Amino acid sequence: MNQTQVVEPPGAARGGSQLSVRRAEDADVQALADMLIGMPDFSLYMRFQGAVGRPPQPELVRRMVCPEGAAWVAERDREVVGHVMWAWVKGATVPTAELAVIVAEAEQRRGLGVRMVVEAARHALDAGAAQLLVLVSAMNDRVLRMVRTHWPTATAERDGALINFTLRAADFG
Questions:
Q1: What is the chain's Cα-based Rg?
Q2: For 64-70, what is the mean pLDDT?
Q3: pTM of this structure
Q4: What is the pLDDT of residues 95-114, one digit of tens each?
Q5: DSSP per-residue string spanning 122-163
Q6: Of the four, 34, 69, 127, 169, which is 20 to 30 A from 87 by CA?
Q7: Which residues pair with 73 in a beta bridge?
Q8: Rounded CA gap, 98 and 25, in Å?
Q9: What is the residue extent of each domain of the chain?
């Protein structure tokens, strides 16, 4: 099993619980659906740019766990609290992987999203991606700030309500 232990800053762990990030597997479908059910509609809209349903459509969650690329989940106390994935962009002129991440409200602003994106990005680059694409709602201040802070050389292109960031392999050392 490919598993990455995420080390939190001192005092960040709640009640001594440990956070782990590991590759997603079929058995994670229900736990990921449960995480999505517990999220506010606005957070879901920021990630999916549309309604996902309550509960989310089973096929959507299955594609999140088994994309045409790879996916990871973050767990705390056996509960899924984050998800990241990459998938090939069909029709791209150079091999391009799209990255997508969602983190439970209680786990946000602690670095988990960045750690998960880096894990997925490195995997996509190792699989042959020449560049990475991150589609962000222009209203999603948290993810916009994350991308601009951690990958300042990313190019940004406005596409209606979205900002499409292109990240280079060099951005991930």
A1: 15
A2: 95
A3: 0.86
A4: 999 999 999 999 988 889 99
A5: HHHHHTT-SEEEEEEETT-HHHHHHHHHH-TT-EEEEETTEE
A6: 34
A7: 22, 83
A8: 19
A9: 3-172
* Amino acid residing at 151: W
Angle between the 112-126 and 141-150 helix axes, to the nearest 10 degrees?
Answer: 60
**In this predicted model, which residue has the larger pLDDT, 122 or 42?**
122
Mean pLDDT estimate for the chain: 88
Looking at residue 32, its amino acid is: L
- Structural fold of domain 3-172: Aminopeptidase (3.40.630)
Instruction: Tell me the mean pLDDT in the region 67-71.
Output: 96
Nearest to 88 by CA among 59, 114, 63, 58: 63
